[in-house]
Specification:
192 residues; rod-shaped; PhaF_PhaI; Phasin family protein
């Protein structure tokens, strides 16, 4: 542009030169205003487009992060479950090797003890019923102070089952005592 102006300046007179410069300046000014208006008009659209692209990118990034977090959570949960199972298995083996009875064993013994206690009580009740007729031969004054005895059908041969149950109860009590003693000994050894 500078060369053009020099060429014009040499060929044109000062008046024409001034007029050409004014005209060029006016065109440059108008071109700048047009560029400014265009940039302002297009700038808002570009800004909005950039905001929309940013929101879309943020959404995709968040979804991807959530998927990866979910995958890692699944893996971690599975690993913890396996680790917990391995730990429980090892503890169970250690307890078994020490000979310590498990909760299942103790529950089984307790259930058996309850069953035998019930049987013993039934036999004792039956024995008391057999002994009741002998109490009826006491004097009338003594019978008046006692509660009336409800007679039931007599149980025949109750002595033999009572003796058998007593033996079972003694055997079970001995077994329970030995288990308790063993648990105490093993517990003291483990703590030492």
């Amino acid at each position: 542009m500078a060369k053009k102006l020099k060429a014009l300046a040499s060929s044109v007179t000062d008046n024409q030169l001034t007029s050409t410069i004014k005209e060029s300046t006016q065109q440059i000014w108008l071109a700048g205003l047009g560029a400014y208006a265009k940039a302002q008009e297009e700038g808002g659209k570009i800004f909005e487009a950039l905001v929309q692209e940013g929101e879309a990118l943020q959404t995709r990034t968040r979804q991807s992060a959530d998927e990866k977090i979910a995958a890692m959570t699944d893996k971690t949960t599975g690993t913890w479950g396996r680790l917990e199972q391995v730990f429980e298995d090892r503890v169970a083996r250690a307890v078994a090797s020490l000979g310590i009875p498990t909760r299942k064993d103790i529950d089984k013994l307790s259930k058996r003890m309850a069953e035998l206690t019930e049987v013993v009580q039934q036999l004792i009740d039956a024995q008391d019923e057999e002994d009741a007729p002998a109490a009826e031969h006491k004097p009338a004054a003594a019978a008046a102070t006692k509660k009336p005895v409800v007679k039931k059908a007599p149980v025949k041969k109750a002595a033999a089952p009572i003796a058998k149950v007593k033996e079972e109860v003694k055997a079970l009590a001995t077994e329970v005592e030995s288990v308790v003693k063993e648990v105490k000994e093993k517990g003291e050894t483990a703590l030492s």
